Amino acid sequence: MTANGSFLYDFGVKTWNGAGKLKESFTRSARVYNRGETHRTEILAATRDGRDDTANARAQEEKDQEKQASAPRSRRQEDLPSPFDPRFRDRYVLTPEPAPDGGAALAFRPAAPFEGALQGRALYDPEGRLRRLELTLAKRPRFTRRLDFTVTIGPDGFPERVDSSGEVSLVIWKRTFESTLVLRDVRTGEKETR
Fold it and tell me: In terms of residue numbers, what domain contains 83?
């Protein structure tokens, strides 16, 4: 964990109905600060369906931050069970495979079903640096037909972009979505001492 770090992000999401008509679009640009135990998000701009929504987004963010500040500090129930986290590695099958650009890839899938399990592959450049993660949940949530994530890793080792897409479908209702998160100006700060 680092103290006094920050980054900027641009986020956008679009949803379409079953007939392919755009139902909603949303964008947000923000700066996230980490100062010791204080985490703060400053909304720089936001739109909803093409109209400026910055004031509403800032008001909602302020409410969310007040709620988080007043809530008792508790540890997350469970971290994302990544196949690259030593705590979860033995629950996955890892299989090396060739990558299209001359690098290497490592496919992963759960050895047996478990809650939150991931499947996909990690792609490495010819020098062995992680450049891309392509993943999905091994067991999709109910009514979810598709849910895909692609994480692009920059030369500094930090995520630069996260793309996701999916489809949720009930009997007579269907939505597809795409979202993009672009991270920039990542500043890691100093290491925390404990």
Answer: 78-139
